[in-house]
């Protein structure tokens, strides 16, 4: 499977390059959703410190730091179920400021209306992240406060606004191999393949209902990466959350299986992420270079 994925990968991408993206949560905690994996939910007591929207100066300082460390895409997240018109307007100068620093922009803000998606497009947003998380048949086991259709509607609004779609899922939540395959089928059968597909390994956070779920075998995760590459050959396949629990060898297999994007920096949403110098050391030893800003 890795061999097949590599053949397909090399047809569309440089075989020895990865894209580095950086994620900053500009508003943390207080989310009304009940996602069983998420420490940001008000339904779970995880000891997470909440903070209101960061000042734009802090956001741009973080963007400059990410750029200096090799990132080409800067992603901003806010723990909202669905942003208000005012909250969208607060994000506009951040998007514009990041773009002025010659970085690709991405935000994840929850569910969007068509007008909200259009406003973000006017601001110059490059990507909008809204994951399916899992397949429809397993979705009710994970979330009860948001419907699967609501996710699909948001993706449709984003696509119609002319914004690139960043959409993937989380594995290791107790689903079967067939479930993981069907999640990828859902992604691959969207009206167009997502331009970016983050594949997350569940990070088990104490205080969430998923804190004690059995860990997913790493080879199952590699199979998921390879299948994503085969099914969505032109998409960026991002090795996302859960990398701190993976060995260097496991991450290397993921790159061989077609992953060509990672999140850099020591924080991912509210959970740990490998340090930048650790990533650079591994990529250097593998002979993998990073994409640069054009």
Supply database-style keywords:
single chain; 294 residues; alpha/beta; 10-stranded parallel beta sheet; two-stranded antiparallel ribbon; 10 helices; 12 strands; 38% helix
Summarize the helix and strand pattern as letters: HEHEHEHEHHEEHEHEHEEEHE
Report the average pLDDT across residues.
88
For the biggest sheet, the summary is: 10 strands, parallel
| Helical segment count | 10
Number of strands: 12
Report how far the terminal alpha carbons are from each other: 33 Å
Q: Regions with pLDDT < 50 over 5+ consecutive residues?
A: 267-271
Q: Approximately how much beta-strand content do the residues carry? A: 15-25%
Structural class comes to: alpha/beta
Summarize the amount of helix as a percent range: 25-40%
Shape: globular
Rg over C-alpha atoms, rounded to the nearest angstrom: 18 Å
């Amino acid at each position: 499977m890795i061999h097949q994925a590599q053949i397909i990968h090399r047809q569309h991408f440089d075989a020895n390059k990865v894209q580095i993206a950086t994620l900053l949560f500009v508003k943390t905690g207080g989310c009304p959703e009940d996602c069983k994996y998420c420490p940001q939910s008000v339904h779970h007591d995880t000891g997470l410190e909440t903070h209101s929207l960061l000042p734009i100066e802090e956001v741009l300082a973080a963007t400059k730091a990410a750029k200096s460390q090799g990132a080409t895409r800067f992603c901003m997240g806010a723990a909202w179920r669905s942003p208000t018109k005012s909250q969208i307007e607060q994000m506009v100068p951040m998007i514009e400021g990041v773009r002025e620093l010659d970085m690709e922009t991405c935000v994840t803000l929850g569910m969007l209306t068509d007008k909200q998606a259009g406003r973000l497009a006017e601001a110059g947003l490059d990507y909008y992240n809204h994951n399916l998380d899992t397949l429809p048949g397993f979705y009710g086991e994970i979330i009860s406060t948001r419907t699967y259709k609501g996710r699909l509607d948001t993706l449709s609004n984003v696509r119609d606004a002319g914004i690139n779609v960043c959409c993937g899922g989380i594995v290791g939540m107790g689903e079967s191999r067939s479930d993981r395959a069907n999640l990828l089928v859902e992604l691959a059968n969207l009206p167009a393949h997502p331009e970016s597909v983050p594949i997350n390994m569940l990070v088990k956070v104490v205080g969430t209902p998923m804190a004690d779920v059995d860990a997913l075998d790493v080879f199952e995760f590699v199979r998921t990466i390879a299948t994503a590459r085969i099914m969505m050959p032109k998409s960026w396949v991002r090795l996302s959350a859960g990398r701190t629990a993976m060995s260097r060898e496991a991450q290397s297999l993921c790159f061989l299986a077609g992953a060509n994007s990672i999140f850099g920096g020591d924080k991912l949403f509210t959970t740990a992420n490998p340090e930048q110098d650790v990533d650079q050391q591994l990529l250097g030893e593998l002979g993998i270079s990073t994409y640069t800003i054009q």
